[in-house]
Model the fold of this input.
Amino acid sequence: MWNHRHRLIVQGEVTALLSIMRGGSSRWGGSKSLDDQQDPLVNGLSMLQEKILKKQVVNLLDVVRPFCDIVVNEETTGPVTGQAIFALDKFLASGLFDPALFSTPQGIREVSEAVTHARFVGTNSSNDEVVLMRIIRVLNTLLSVPAGRLLTNESVCEIMQSCFRICFEGRLSELLHCFAENTLVEMIRILFSDLDSLKDTPAENNDTNEVVNNSSRDSIETVEQNIDIKEKKEEKKKEKKEEDEEENTELKQVDTVNNVIETNSDKDGEDGDGESPLQLDISPENSNSRDTEDNEFISSRGVHFATVSSGGEPHGMACIREVLRFLIAIINPRDRNNTDRLISIGLSLVTVMIECSGGTIGRVESMRPLLQDGLSHHLLMLLTHDNLQLFVQTLKNCYLLFESCRQYLKLQLEWFLSVLMNILKSEKQHPARQEMSLECIIQMCHIPGFIPELYVNYDCSIYCSNVCEKLNKLLSKQVFPNTTHTLQSTNILALDTILAVVSSLRSCDSSHDQSNSFPTSSTTSSTEHGVDTSMNKSAGLIFSSTKQE
Done:
């Protein structure tokens, strides 16, 4: 329940917002007139202030809704909207949304609905970006607070989509772009660090099934075509709505989901280069909000809010799959809408995703096809990209992916090593690419049991090529200098790689000798000596890893 500190926080924010609305805005004059009292926005805050002063019982929804009405109202100015968003962020951070309260699920979802559809009249670019920065901040707070676990799949996807829109909007400053990118990193870390506590659910979305059953290229293209159709319909609706507006209007409006900044006076000069090419979309089967008209609450300003406190399900694996599918789509090098900057941001987010989830993401059956098909396919294609920075990021992601989930990626690992060997063989490749490829192979050779795994799973299989043999032969050739007899850095790295291969074989042989020195028990296995040997039944692969303390 509320305490005295919470009442003081709410009272202070109401007073601050009323002072800005009455004294700092041209819409509300400096004096308290009759029209001012009849305005629904001011009237809602005044009633809330009166209840707090009289120490009456105040529900959480009674506190949230006046601020949400201001956030979504398109006639309010940037400072007023920014102050309302700042107040909501303070309410979230101060613990006002207690997960134990019955009204908290509905309250936090109404806040999410309002912030992701925030609109305001812009004054200048600097002040507008301050409001956008506050919007990004409260979006991150929504996911980070304990009550954020009560958000639905649709709410989380709208939050991510809003942040993506601002991050990829070309007309904003570089500072706001960096702030939005850092916030996206935090959101991805929050979502994928908690995979162990989420229950795996089957993928009911048709788009997700296409990604599972078809090749990654065809599935992603199908998803993009569907989304393009949706975007064209939305653009037609926007154009029709703009035609109905007054001709003399020259005010700027900000909408964090549909268009980040829209200027009515210079619409003809706009371009869509800054918009994200895709959208996060949850199918109606997985959506838990706004199913029927009976589950809606209409505020005094005509804004619809879903009353999902009794029937709404918290977000789960469906939302995580949708975010992963979006990340896979934005790193597709064959999509012309994906610029180098967009792919670079996507690779950075994929890095955070793999680092936070580790091997957990591979153990989730509904996520595994996305890793095997879409993610691996696009990463392998990026290894041939001309941009050296993207090549470095791709190598890092490939190493993290195969280090944690290689038991589910047998064919992908074989292809990855083949690409690296082709880079080492080619004389046309830049020396920096060859050096980084060798360094990646060195890191993989230092994975406990990696070289024996290659030999058992590939060289000893009649369906695979002799990957281990080809790799060792290539490294032996790379050790010697070229025809000019000049020792290069690649020669030294190749020698280091061979030493790492020998060291991996030696450590495996030492573990085998130690296990044979204790024949007293028939149940003695290599797990007693720090090496765990496991077999993937679905693929018939044998993998060993160091036992974690």
User: Anything to note?
Assistant: The CA atoms of residues 92 and 465 lie 56 Å apart. The first helix runs from residue 4 to 23. The chain is about 60% helix and 5% strand.
